[in-house]
Amino acid sequence: MKFLLVFDFDHTIVDENSDTWIVKCAPEKKLPNGLRNSYRPGHWIEYMGRVFVYLGDNGIKEDEMKRTMTTIPFTAGMVDLLGFIGKNKELFDCIIVSDSNTVFIDWILKAAGYHKVFDEVFTNPAAFSGTGYLTVQNFHAHHCARCPKNLCKRKVLKDFLDKQLERGVSYTQIVYIGDGGNDLCPVMFLKKDDIAMPRQGYTLEKKISQLAQDLRPVECSVLVWSSATDIMSYLNLLIKE
């Protein structure tokens, strides 16, 4: 009996978008209009690349960015949930699949002491250049028309499950916890014994309900959450079965 918990990061583990939170470091805590309006759908990584160049050009250093990122709030109930998972690691494997980046997620989880709860983090690789600028790269290349060009979360999940099977690990149930439009692709990959937990009022919940209205419902069960306490109640039931 082992369960796989798959978490998105922004607006799921933390209650904000880590990529927009970093703007608090910018002069006057905002970006110039030209930069802010330069985003093109599906090209978030390139956009963030320009944001990081702007921060670097304005002398924003790594330590200041780290200080800012570690003030990002966790979602309601999430601290208790991560503590609960940490205490029950023999039952839960736990991964993050996120369109944020390795530097931000690492800073936030380590500062709060939760990095050991997660077995693996799949997100866009980031590093500071020799000149002190943060640079981010695409996580991988893929052929999925639904997803942004830098990350298909379904491909990440499928590759992870294949690797685990090679190691002799299979899961009784996959629990997918997320909020965004890019979480729909992996949710559509889940089977009938699995469960999708979309955050109430966010894009993923709306997209799943739209599919149900179009009579093309997802195969897995769906349980909506508004606080991580809802997720913990469900996991408690799972382990009592």
Automatic annotation (TrEMBL):
Example GO molecular function: phosphatase activity
The keyword Nuclease is annotated on this UniProt entry: no
Keyword field contains Ubl conjugation: no
Gene3D superfamilies per record: HAD superfamily/HAD-like
Pfam families listed in its UniProt record: Put_Phosphatase
Binding residue positions for substrate: D19, D99
Keywords, ordered alphabetically: Hydrolase, Magnesium, Metal-binding
Cofactor: Mg(2+)
Binding-site list for Mg(2+): D8, D10, D179
Active-site residues, as the UniProt record annotates them: D8, D10
Superkingdom of source: Eukaryota
InterPro entries: HAD-like_sf, HAD_hydro_PyrdxlP_Pase-like, HAD_sf, Pase_PHOSPHO-typ
Protein family membership: Belongs to the HAD-like hydrolase superfamily. PHOSPHO family.
Name of this protein: PHOP2 phosphatase
